[in-house]
Amino acid sequence: MIFYICFENQMSKKDLDIILKYWKYDHEKGTYLYKTSELTNSSNLIKSSDVRKLVKINSSIALNNKQSICPECKTRFKSKNRSGVKELPTSPELCNSCKKELENEYISAKMDYLEDKLKLIHPVDNFYDDSLSYIELISLYLLIKPGSSRRPIFYKKDKLGLTLSSEVDGGIINSLSKRKLIFDFSEKKYKQLTLNDYPFRENSFPLFSHDGNFISGFDHADQDLVKQLLILFRTSLPKQGLHIPLPQNYKNFSSYKKDVDSKIKNYKINLEDIKQIESLVLKQRLGIAFNIVNSVSNYFKLKIEPSLKLEAVLISLVKKYTIEEVNSIIFTNASSSKHYIEFINSDFNKYAKKFLFTKNLERTLDFFEGKDLQMFKIELPNFLKGSKLENFFNTYIAKKSSNDEGAWQSLSVNEIVALWIKSF
Ligand SMILES: [Zn+2]
């Protein structure tokens, strides 16, 4: 270890002598020549701590190494005691005051950035958009229905319950958020805002945890600034999910709702809307049918290969039969397919096994063709019913309560669409 002594003050010969002895280093043994306690013989210096104090006030040690400086302010790193010498950086490194300046600058820039972004999140456009399609209008109506007073409505993405098909919901959300009627604050957007892009700690410290409240990695920054940033996160950062702000031209959500409702009632339906209704109802039912297929596949431990054929058969099924009948048809077919593989022909090859269910389903459908049979029904589990769309249909189109004959649950896609169109 090669270092040199820097003297900070003028001092007496006696003090100088003590300081020189304190720093005297035996390079061969790798130890200091004198113990601090050996230097306490003078009348002023009774204890070891007195010696260290004298050394600290008057001298410091720097490494004789061109790398041991702060690259920013070019200050040489120094130590004022023996234990600190070992910790002197041997390569260029930011000094504490430069670290502090940098961290403060970063935090201020981050706050500006956040404030800008947060302004974008709450668009307060006036709502007078007459170009919304029928489906968009009823979706908007259903989503703002629970709103009260003026506070924005919030939905977690998986609790939307609009159609119970995440694909269909996604499409509707997309078109409404393009019109800035709802704001989709996705996980990706959230992560962009909470990202720690501080260049020196990027990977090792989270700026903000995704569940809570902390900022770490800023040991040198002004604590007040750190607190301000934290408050900005806590109070202004919206939750992940969908936010529906109240447009500026309404006093509260009930007047907003009334307006959307009257737009729905006065809506002039066109061919495009009918296509959209058809596709929406079909996709919704198809989503449920696939859900049932997955659940019977787990239940019977039956491999069911997804295929275009399977989709085509399911489309025909849901178009013609009520969803409870579809549930029963799928269940019975899965059961008989499993039975066939296990007890009748266990040597069935692997490839054919995966398609057996689809094949059976297709045969069943052909068998039912043209026959007016009484179908067996299996009620859907609760999480597959009760979507907002379904409730809308029951209340406004079918004018039935949800358990009645003629309500959503007891109709096929074809029947739902026919009723819907007739209602205009
Ligand atoms: Zn510096």
Summarize the structure in short.
With about 425 residues, the protein is mainly alpha-helical.
Detailed description of the structure:
- The protein has 424 residues and is mostly helical.
- It is 51% helix and 6% strand.
- It has 15 helices and eight strands.
- It has helices spanning 13-23, 48-58, 82-85, 96-121, 134-144, 166-178, 187-194, 223-236, 253-265, 271-299, 308-320, 323-344, 350-368, 388-398, 413-422; strands spanning 3-7, 25-26, 31-32, 59-63, 78-79, 153-155, 183-185, 241-244.
- The strands form three sheets. The chain has a three-stranded antiparallel sheet with strand order 1-4-5.
- β2 (25-26) and β3 form a beta hairpin.
- The longest helix has 29 residues, at 271-299.
- The chain is elongated, with a radius of gyration of 37 Å.
- The model has no long low-confidence stretch (mean pLDDT 87).
- The structure holds zinc ion.
- Zinc ion binds next to α4.
- Residues 70, 72-73, 75, 94-95, 97-98 line the site of zinc ion (ZN).
Q: Which helices and strands, and how do they pair?
A:
Elements (H helix, E strand, L loop, with lengths): L2 E5 L5 H11 L1 E2 L4 E2 L15 H11 E5 L14 E2 L2 H4 L10 H26 L12 H11 L8 E3 L10 H13 L4 E3 L1 H8 L28 H14 L4 E4 L8 H13 L5 H29 L8 H13 L2 H22 L5 H19 L19 H11 L14 H10 L2
Antiparallel strand pairs: 1-4, 2-3, 4-5, 6-8, 7-8
Helix pairs in contact: 1-2, 4-8, 5-9, 10-11, 10-12, 10-15, 11-13, 12-13
The structure holds zinc ion.
